[in-house]
Amino acid sequence: MILGLSISLQAQNTDVAFKLYTNLYYLNADPIPSFASGWGQFKGLTPAVTLFDGDAYHELEFSNLRFSRDNRQLEEQRSFLVGFRYEYGQVIDLGWGGENLTTSIGGAARFYHYNQSITPKQTSSFESSIKQNKVVFAVVPRLLYRLNDSFSIDLNTSISVVSAGFETTFYDNPLMSEQN
Questions:
Q1: What is the pLDDT at residue 23?
Q2: Spatial distance between the Cα atoms of 35 and 26, rounded to a whole number of angstroms
Q3: Comparing C-alpha atoms, which of 46, 116, 29 is closest to residue 81?
Q4: Is the pLDDT of residue 95 over 90?
């Protein structure tokens, strides 16, 4: 099981909430592709929007956007990561915490795309590229504490249930002829 902890500050009216999440992941198995795993990683601030429909809600979070260029001694690496999360949930009234504390449970799907290219600086290596696509399905229990009519703190954890993905790797070997 993979756990993530998210805390957000949200500004809302009755139908729409705008959130800024900070995402922390644990258990040395980050629920994003293998190029970004590690213990207790801080993922920065990510924007999200939530649409409320009675006791149900839909949420879309733009969870990752990274560009990097690493100029090493023997090679140059360039990479790109983009990810987003969609969640559908239901508000559940447990009857505790008064009117300022709300609980809900949701089901989420997180999607990621990663692209990396490696250009060698020596002739004994070949140019290569890696593409990864991944989807992670999770259950998301939430506690929402209302600070006032406009601002709330959303504390939730993401429990990954199943993940799937694929990866392609391409090596540009000039010694191999192309097949027509």
A1: 65
A2: 15
A3: 116
A4: no
